[in-house]
Design goal:
- The protein is α/β, with parallel strands linked by helices and 257 residues long.
- The protein has 7 helices and 10 strands.
- The strands form 2 sheets. A 6-stranded mixed sheet has the order 6-7-8-3-9-10, with helices on both faces. It has a 4-stranded antiparallel sheet with strand order 2-1-4-5, with helices on one face.
- Strand 7, helix 5 and strand 8 form a beta-alpha-beta unit.
Length: 257
Amino acid sequence: MMKRADGDAIVVEHLRVVRGKREVLPDLSVTVPTGQVVGLLGPSGGGKSTLMRAIVGVQQVRSGEVTVLGEPAGSPGLRHRVGYVTQAPSVYADLSVRHNLRYFAAVLGAAGGAVDRAIDAVDLTSHADAPVRTLSGGQRSRVSLAAALVGDPELLVLDEPTVGLDPVLRRDLWELFRRLAHNEGRTLLVSSHVMDEATRCDRLLLLREGEVFSDSTLPELLERTGAADAEQAFLALVDRAAGRQSSSPSTTSGDAS
């Protein structure tokens, strides 16, 4: 059974990432508490995927530190403790669901019964022997999630797992996420650009242009902004930031460059 980490599952300190000529994350610091569903919300292109890649140790960083479950991100010791689901399904289309999971279980050295438990967790038992290529988009997303679960990870990093899914499938996946956190003690960092998914998270990180605008619960965010929902709150924070920038002293032509 999964071991439970103490304290914060993720600690990011002064993270700077440059891709090409663009500074995607200029100086980002944030923590993710253990045993919660934390939503990483914000518009596309704001740095969500880059941050997640840094957390799982596959993103080259310019400076800063990322600590995951007490170890530096990407450490060999985290291989079995962290599950990562990318936006695109990361399974083999010509294999069945079961054969995909058996392969990942063998790579991870997973305990006996892990494959069946993962299939059951994502509610794909009736499709276990179907080739992945015959499944719907939502079902393929659940196969990718099952592949991440087969290693019994303490931390799940999920990059837009509900994108393109119908409302029923989105609801079912979020119920699964909450069950994994609240019943099994796992930590989930889930990115999305759909603001109404904020209501399903224990905590929210609002990210825009590489900057964390807010780190709070939804009720705290709504109280702070006076907004009716997460989308209005996000826009209110953007407007406040724009107001601060416009009120700052401007550079005149006589100033040194």
